[in-house]
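Late entry, written up from scratch paper. The run itself happened at the end of the previous shift, but nothing got recorded in the book at the time, so transcribing now.
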Amino acid sequence: MKSSVKKDLDTLSKNLYLESPDLWIEFLDKVNSGIFDELVLFFATKYNYISIVKYAIDNNLIDINAK
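Output as recorded:
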């Protein structure tokens, strides 16, 4: 994973923790497992982290069937 994407994921994680600690736990579990589903992509776009979305698309990491 690129360092810029890693940095953006860390910053996004901090923002999400402040917004909703419950969702933050789920978000961390998914990111640490390499799952980029609608939850991760939603918050990446909400907070304008297009690099995360681009990374997920370029590396075919999007899993809309993840639980």
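The two ends are 23 Å apart (CA to CA).
(Scratch paper discarded after transcription.)
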